[in-house]
Amino acid sequence: MSKKHDVIINCIGVGTQRKIRGDYTKYFIVGEKFDNMIIEYLQNYSPETLYINISSGAVYGRSFTGPVSEWSENALTVNHIMQEDYYSICKLNSEAKHRAFSHLKIVDLRLFSYFSRFADISDGYFITDIIDSIKSNKKLKTNTTNIIRDYVHPVDLCSIVHICIQINNINDAYDVMSTKPVNKTEILDYFSKNYGLKYSIDSSIVEQTPTGVKDIYYSKYFKIAKIGYIPSYSSLDTVIQEASYLLEDKK
Predict the structure, then answer these.
(1) What does 83-152 look like in DSSP terms, one character per residue?
(2) What is the CATH number of the domain that holds 157?
(3) Distance between CA atoms of residues 251 and 227, nearest Å
(4) Domain-embedded: residue 229
(5) Total tally of structural domains belonging to the chain
(6) Terminal-residue alpha carbon distance, the chain
(7) Cβ atoms within 10 A of the Cβ of 87, count?
(8) Residue 2 in domain
């Protein structure tokens, strides 16, 4: 890259478990390739460029028995690294590298959950499975765990991006959140009442995820408020508004 850019936003990922088909090396190879490419550009061509990297709540590890805080730790058993640790290690290494380049303008925005009208309903996440079940008129099957998620609205995500651009001279990481998380029961209740979602709860269903099971996945580390971020939408607001575009034919 020889042209000058004011801002670079990196939201490159390898996709869902279904898309990577068990090739977890992509977590390391793809992420590092583009991150290193951007940092090389900043160093050699444009150190004044702001680099905004979309990181993940997974940086905190794979143990989520409660919301994370400022002093949460990513506890890794060094001699027994598991598949579920790979993604977390990638994110932690990436953020550590960004802080090491303290002379560059790099911001890591940690998203815990995100949902928009542009979601691929075949991705295999809880929300996309709900949308797919409604559109296909089939029963959703889920387990008994009442998971908690914090879905950030696209407007709120754009808001924090604009704030970072205005501040400009910054090298830090922030947890991004909505005004309020939402649990599985609330989501199921909404879609069953408003879209006729049919679902069954089966205690024998075991959730499988390549990044570790995250029953309670949100943050109470509000450092982001210090730079002026005030979210406008709750997680349920986000789900309701964005799902309405995907389910227009079911209204």
Answers:
(1) GGGHHHHHHHHHHHHHHH-TTSEEEEEEESEE--TT--TTS--HHHHHHHHHHHT--EEE-S---EE-EE
(2) 3.40.50.720
(3) 40
(4) yes
(5) 1
(6) 47
(7) 23
(8) no
3-state secondary structure 48-91: CCEEEEEEEHHHHCCCCCCCECCCCCCCCCHHHCCHHHHHHHHH
Beta-bridge partners for 9: 52
Per-residue pLDDT tens digits of the chain, which is 251 residues long: 567 899 999 999 876 666 666 788 888 899 999 999 999 999 999 999 999 999 999 999 987 889 999 999 998 999 999 988 999 999 999 999 999 999 999 999 999 999 999 998 888 889 999 999 999 999 999 999 999 999 999 999 999 999 999 999 999 999 999 999 999 999 999 999 999 999 999 888 777 676 777 899 999 999 999 999 999 999 999 999 999 999 987 66
What residue numbers bound the domain in which 226 lies? 7-250
